[in-house]
Please model this.
Amino acid sequence: MSLLEIRGVAKRFGATVALDGVDLTLQPGEVCALIGENGAGKSTLLHVLAGSTRPDRGRMQIDGRPYAPASPLEARRRGVALIHQDLSLCPHLTVAENIVLGVEPSRWGWIDGDAARKRTLTLLEHFGHPHLHPDRRVGALSIAAQQVVEICRALAADARILLMDEPTSSFQREDVDRLFVLIRRLAAQGMAVIYISHFLEEVREIASRYAVLRDGRSVDAGEIASVTNERLIGQMVGREMAGLFPKRTRPTRGDVVLAVQDVAAPPTLKQASFELRRGEILGIAGLMGSGRSELVRALFGLEPGASGRIALQGRALGVHGVTPGARLQQGFGYLSEDRKREGLALPLSIADNLTATRLSAVSPGWGWLDLKRQWAAARSWIEALRIRATDPMQPVRALSGGNQQKVAVGRLLNQDAELLLLDEPTRGIDIGSKAQIYETIARCAEQGKAVLLVSSYLPELFGLCDRLAVMSRGRLSPARPIEEWTPETVLATAIGNS
Model:
């Protein structure tokens, strides 16, 4: 008998059809990869299973018994736990309080704090994060550390079915390896896992079966070992695709657009110097917490304690005390790694978000907006980036995580900045959309824009960049042509062995 059986599940949000007949079967001890483009219905299906969304029709069974949870608490009691793509933690609570939330150990009617901390430490041991103390406030943690807390909270519920929505999107490879060891251990004990990831190499490494959703429908399923990546991608997007990375010729040695000298932002970023030339894509690699993000934030005026010297096209600019508004006026464009907290205004419309950093292009002056021009500009980017939305006035928070990321990228492109600072530009983006974003980045470079690309995904750096530098413990290595690097030398430099 199957542990979980789903038949004909459908869900509509107004005019948007999120699910339109999904079938899925899950056996005990099985890891099933759920694959599809952004907006295909993957996250909605997990929310239906987790009890936070009620389906319009269809049926579900666990152990042959009807399953229709009215709430996440009821789903947890039936053994189903969800690890959210967009973290759903309480930032004002501690690590331990978040992990045991809803399953708090108690003695004589009182929460047993010692038992909660002990349980937390046991779960955290799987990930080897010594800085993740049970009493630390979650709001003070990095995104990667918060993702560990989210995973541990699901494990604390002793689930039989674990739903994982992009669990490694903020992880370095070492954390991914630890998570996969844990998943294999849990599967060996009979736990079943539905695993969503846009990284096909991850899917092949951890899953035994796959299921593909397209436009809310089940279109393919089977053993992962018996299917090629080309077939998977074709089933996801409904068409054949060319290579993931665009073919680029090495740009001629253009003028220096940005010269950075001894930029620092204590305590994480200690020293960084480099030159970025017109038409070039310069990659920045490094481990999480090494200072990569702090570098681009300092350049954009988001690190108040930053120091050092920079020159834009030969003109000296201030680093200390500069504002993002000033950087926008100077031609800088910035894409944050954290779209939820600072990359987007989630309650505002798609149109407002897409045009926010260049309102002059949709304004006749005197402080007024031309809504027709704004909507027309928004529609052009919605079409160009294949953003799944009903219209430009739809709130960004109503979109899937990947489509939200497309809006953030679209705003940067609409701004038409000459210098692009990109921090994890394809996080949470599906394969087809990644190829589209890569093509867009390459086209920006061909148009003479200078691109600084920070990424945790080495294939992305090797597939796009002309030169690469590596951040290690707050210090940036010299930039070298990409062909002079290998994944092994990048890792050795990142951990300080070269």
